[in-house]
Amino acid sequence: MDEFEDVIRVSEANLAEAWPQQGSLCIECGSGNGLWVADQATKRPLEHWVAIEKKGQRVRKIARKKRNQQLHNLSIVWGKVEDTLPFWPTAAVKEVHILFPDPWPKGRHAENRLITPEFVQALSEKVQTEGEVHIVTDDEDYRDRIEHAFEGSAFQFTYDSAYQVGWEGVSTFCELWKKLGKSIYSFSYKRDSRG
Ligand SMILES: C[S@@+](CC[C@H](N)C(=O)[O-])C[C@H]1O[C@@H](n2cnc3c(N)ncnc32)[C@H](O)[C@@H]1O
Predict the structure, then answer these.
(1) Residue 114 beta carbon below 6 angstroms from any ligand 1 atom
(2) Is domain 90-195 given the CATH code 3.40.190.290 in the classification?
(3) Whose CA, among 71, 121, 163, 188, lies 20 to 30 Å from 133?
(4) Given the residues 6, 39, 83, 102, the one annotated as active site
(5) Cα of 122 to ligand 1 centre, how many Å?
């Protein structure tokens, strides 16, 4: 059995397969073992979910969940989020979720951080009006950088109480950090109407 049969590699032609013909598009960036995105795809079957993950071993775990749970509304993309972004459909993404992005705390590794002002600018072209971006981090420094990255962007910060618990129990890293007694910071943003 080829576990990667259902997995999409990054190229413009391949990625066109990831986007739904119908239903709303919700993307998770950095899905890890896919526990959270598989749970979402089960609970919200009318949305089309895309899991993007760069590590092959983790992609394999997501693919197993898709197969075992018969998640026809889940696409799996194996690659770096940044490489896929230019191929996301324009102004068509309903939700973007980023749960516990790697913080890369050392200054010399800063270029590896996913959430930067440039990334937020690119997201603003892809997310539909009133579309949402949700981010959760355990890292205080990254929390401040995230806030800074969204300043002056096309997104407005919103408090989404439902989202505060939406990732508990089903994000592997959330459970890990909670056990270690770490603080967890959660952000929700909404895309402004286009002028
Ligand atoms: C700390 S883990 C969190 C996993 C999952 N979201 C969770 O909450 O359990 C971060 C994940 O993002 C993936 N990742 C980091 N940077 C990425 C990138 N630029 N593109 C795709 N995946 C990335 C890592 O391989 C890892 O699986």
Answers:
(1) yes
(2) no
(3) 71
(4) 102
(5) 19
Q: Where in the chain is the domain with CATH 3.40.50.150?
A: 1-89, 90-195
Instruction: Give percent of the chain with pLDDT exceeding 90.
Output: 67
pLDDT at 16: 85
Task: Indicate if the pLDDT at residue 163 is higher than 80.
Answer: no
**102 belongs to the catalytic site:** yes
Atom of ligand 1 nearest to the CA of 32: 27
Q: Which atom of ligand 1 is nearest to the CA of 136?
A: 8
Q: Give the CATH class of 1-89.
A: alpha beta
Q: At 23, phi and psi to the nearest 5? A: 90, 165
Long-range contacts of 44-47 (CB under 8 A, 24+ apart): 45/73, 46/73, 47/23, 47/73, 47/94, 47/95
**59, HSE (Cβ side, Cα atoms, 13 Å):** 21
Q: How many CA atoms lie within 13 A of 11 on its CB side?
A: 4
Q: pTM score > 0.85 for this model?
A: yes
Is residue 175 pLDDT above 90, yes or no? no
The mean pLDDT of the chain is 90
pLDDT, tens digit (0-9, with 9 covering 90-100), for 69-79: 999 999 999 99
User: What does the pLDDT read at residue 93?
Assistant: 96
Distance CA 10, CA 16 (A): 10
